[in-house]
């Protein structure tokens, strides 16, 4: 007996020590992101600009042109009002949110009874899709924190239906859905799972209470339906037919950021966790253990099913950060499920420590490498072009959405535009792209400005690169959307505009050369842009033509 007690104490100490070491490692990753992230990339600038608008305009734009509900823009608005809106202050907010998620993983572990988050620190805490994008000026980090709080609150309400727990569950559900639209889907999954467990035990009243929590949160989202039609019109250019294979591939891409085999690890851990829930539900002698196994197992299945169903319905081309909420909740649920099987069995607890240690060692190099990346190099480019580009030069940013970042950081004398030009570079307005796709010649003002600039002997600076066709080839000619073969697909039109711009520069350029950029470490692929400088020879025929046009316009 004494030997067993001593072994339990040693393993318990080893678990706590491992958890603290893992936590230290994850904290170091967040500090590395804070130090290396650099300037804000386009999605972050979009949200920061939104938060700085007058309240009525901010609310209107949140309904129609933002990927998140209002809680995060309001949080940003309060933070910038108190601390400031420079890059350093905003990165500090991201660090606070990231460390808050780490603390929430520990809090959730205590509430679910496994005390020390081991698997969840590796699967979630050390996942670049979490620490890199959760610390950004987007709602992912805050949304994941509130998601876990909502999960715990509904689980506690499922265990004991008291008025304080009803209020707490309702509050966290309300906050969670107001931070991420994806949390609405996961609230439905968690709520249905809790209601099924309540009905299994014959407690209809508890099932109704859980349902009411979900209904109250759902009602709070009704204002966002006001902008749904305009949002759908704007997003039609970014929608595409996707299936389970595409979603699975993107989820694999998200989790494999920390290691090429992590998707396989996730599949294995999920299979084992579901098997444990099934066995515990069938064999547990105590009712509360059967209920816990049933709830966790249902949550895992429902969370995956509802999330995938939502993505299929939305038909959106996803990116790794779209899966942050799913990664977070699954990591916690999988660890809770494994704890049901491991319990206090010493050999299984030792095995868990060994597996977690191996995973941590395998994940650490890639996670550290990802934490070193800058979010953008556009701030560096803007600073360089302020020195290089003169008045009379012309800067072209391609594609158009990268102009959001460029506008935040560029304050030089040269004029600039995107390909194609936009009327406002503060926000992503997908509906404006749809409108441009319907125009017969949306690039003509830009092309005319390029001709004039090169003909007058000034330089053109291209930020982001262009698609140069082989010599002798000319760009295709698409009719205005949606009448061509591509319908509302945006990529063919973006490629066409890039090719048209490149074709004109090739025709009028005397010299094209890349511009060396300052080296400040690796940059994430979504906003790692090259720069080239194009020089033209003065063309008297075009200069005279342009002067004549200016004279006629003045008359």
Could you name the key traits of this structure?
23 helices; five-stranded mixed β-sheet; 555 residues; disordered C terminus
Provide a descriptive summary of the structure in words.
With 555 residues, this protein is mainly alpha-helical. The protein contains 23 helices and 5 strands. β1, α19 and β2 form a beta-alpha-beta unit. α10 packs antiparallel against α11 and α15 packs antiparallel against α16.
Ranges with pLDDT <50 over ≥5 residues?
A: 541-555
Distance between the termini: 103 Å
Q: Main beta sheet: strand number and arrangement?
A: 5 strands, mixed
Strand content: under 5%
Structural class: mainly alpha
Number of strands: 5
Counting DSSP H or I runs of 4 or more residues, the number of helices is 23
How would you sum up this structure in a few lines?
Helix content is 65%, strand content 5%.
Question: What's the arrangement of secondary structure elements?
Answer:
Blueprint: H1 2-36, H2 42-51, H3 55-65, H4 71-82, H5 87-112, H6 119-125, H7 128-131, H8 140-159, H9 163-177, H10 181-200, H11 204-219, H12 228-235, H13 244-255, H14 262-283, H15 287-314, H16 324-342, H17 346-371, H18 378-388, E1 394-397, H19 403-409, E2 415-418, H20 430-437, H21 444-455, E3 459-463, H22 490-508, E4 509-514, E5 531-536, H23 540-554
Parallel strand pairs: 1-2, 1-3
Antiparallel strand pairs: 3-5, 4-5
């Amino acid at each position: 007996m004494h030997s067993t007690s001593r072994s339990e104490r040693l393993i318990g100490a080893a678990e706590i020590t491992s958890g603290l070491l893992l936590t230290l490692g994850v904290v170091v990753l967040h500090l590395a992101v804070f130090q290396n992230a650099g300037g804000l990339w386009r999605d972050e600038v979009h949200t920061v600009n939104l938060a700085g608008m007058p309240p009525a305009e901010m609310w209107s734009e949140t309904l129609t042109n933002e990927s998140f509900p209002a809680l995060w823009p309001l949080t940003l608005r309060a933070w910038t009002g108190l601390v400031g809106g420079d890059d350093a202050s905003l990165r500090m907010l991201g660090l606070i949110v990231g460390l808050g998620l780490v603390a929430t993983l520990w809090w959730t572990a205590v509430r679910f009874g496994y005390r020390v988050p081991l698997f969840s620190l590796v699967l979630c805490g050390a996942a670049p899709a979490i620490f890199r994008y959760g610390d950004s000026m987007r709602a992912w980090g805050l949304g994941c924190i509130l998601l876990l709080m909502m999960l715990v609150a509904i689980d506690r309400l499922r265990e004991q239906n008291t008025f304080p727990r009803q209020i707490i569950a309702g509050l966290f559900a309300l906050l969670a859905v107001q931070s991420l639209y994806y949390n609405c889907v996961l609230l439905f999954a968690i709520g249905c799972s809790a209601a099924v467990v309540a009905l299994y035990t014959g407690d209809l009243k508890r099932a109704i209470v859980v349902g009411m929590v979900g209904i109250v949160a759902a009602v709070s989202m009704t204002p966002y339906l006001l902008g749904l039609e305009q949002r759908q019109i704007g997003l039609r250019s970014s929608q595409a037919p996707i299936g389970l294979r595409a979603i699975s591939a993107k989820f694999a891409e998200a989790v494999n950021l920390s290691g090429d085999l992590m998707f396989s690890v996730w599949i294995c851990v999920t299979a084992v966790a579901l098997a444990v829930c099934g066995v515990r539900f069938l064999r547990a002698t105590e009712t509360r253990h059967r209920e816990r196994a049933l709830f966790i197992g249902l949550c895992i299945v429902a969370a995956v099913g509802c999330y995938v169903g939502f993505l299929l319905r939305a038909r959106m081309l996803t990116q790794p950060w779209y899966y942050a909420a799913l990664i977070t909740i699954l990591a916690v649920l999988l660890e809770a499920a494994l704890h049901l099987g491991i319990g206090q069995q010493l050999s299984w607890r030792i095995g868990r420590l060994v597996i977690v240690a191996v995973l941590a060692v395998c994940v650490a190099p890639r996670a550290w490498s990802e934490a070193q990346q800058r979010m953008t190099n556009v701030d560096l480019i803007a600073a360089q072009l302020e020195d290089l580009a003169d008045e009379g030069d012309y800067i072209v940013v391609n594609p158009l959405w990268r102009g959001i970042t460029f506008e935040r950081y560029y304050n030089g004398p040269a004029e600039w535009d995107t390909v194609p030009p936009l009327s406002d570079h503060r926000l992503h307005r997908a509906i404006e792209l749809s409108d441009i796709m319907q125009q017969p010649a949306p690039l003509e003002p830009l092309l005319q400005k390029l001709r004039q600039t090169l003909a007058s002997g000034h330089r053109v600076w291209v930020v982001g690169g262009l698609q140069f066709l082989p010599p002798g080839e000319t760009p295709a000619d698409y009719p205005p959307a949606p009448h061509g073969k591509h319908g509302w697909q945006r990529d063919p039109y973006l490629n066409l505009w890039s090719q048209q711009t490149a074709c004109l520069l090739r025709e009028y350029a005397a010299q094209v050369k890349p511009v060396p950029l300052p080296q400040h470490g690796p940059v994430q692929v979504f906003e790692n842009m090259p720069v080239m400088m194009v020089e033209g020879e003065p063309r008297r025929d075009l200069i005279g033509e342009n002067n004549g046009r200016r004279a006629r316009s003045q008359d």
